[in-house]
Amino acid sequence: MFALGASANEATWYQPGGAYGACGSINQNSDLVAALSPSEYASGANCYRRMRVGYQNKFVDVTIVDLCPSCAVGHIDLSEGAFEQLANLGVGVIQGVTYQYE
């Protein structure tokens, strides 16, 4: 079950590339994972927490595995694989996404 969520300013995508994320796991570009802003990452308190991200009636369930140091509060950085579930990678940035923590 997912808890009530919030509206995020935007979502972007990144390539984990088989590297270790801030939470300590190795992640691939195709994995359904995400990185959070420093305040939402909360010094790792949200590591491995599940989140449902929505955009224009599409949804993807991701696991928080990384920190996005340059992200503002409400900005979610999705892996390439997760972003593709919501929009074409060429879009780069999607505005008005919603998210809910499990």
What would you note in describing this structure?
Keywords: Signal. This is Barwin-like endoglucanase. Pfam families: DPBB_1. Residues 8-95 form the RlpA-like protein double-psi beta-barrel domain. The chain has one domain (6-101): RlpA-like domain (Barwin-like endoglucanases), CATH 2.40.40. It is built from two helices and ten strands, in the order E-E-E-E-E-H-E-E-E-H-E-E. The chain has helices spanning 38-41, 80-84, and strands at residues 6-7, 10-14, 19-20, 26-27, 33-36, 50-55, 58-67, 75-79, 94-95, 98-101. It has an eight-stranded mixed sheet with strand order 1-10-6-7-5-8-2-9. It has a two-stranded antiparallel sheet with strand order 3-4. A hairpin with a 2-residue loop joins strand 6 (50-55) and strand 7 (58-67). The protein is globular and about 30 Å long. The termini are close together. The model has no long low-confidence stretch (mean pLDDT 92).
Structural category is mainly beta
What is the total domain count? 1
CATH topology: Barwin-like endoglucanases
Q: How much of the residues is beta strand, in percent? A: 35-45%
The CATH homologous superfamily is termed RlpA-like domain
**Which CATH class applies here?**
Mainly Beta
Sequence of secondary-structure elements: EEEEEHEEEHEE
**What is the count of DSSP helices, taking H or I runs of 4+ residues?**
2
Question: What is the arithmetic mean of pLDDT?
Answer: 92
Domain RlpA-like protein double-psi beta-barrel: 8-95
Keywords: Signal
Protein name: Barwin-like endoglucanase
Organism: Lentinus tigrinus ALCF2SS1-6
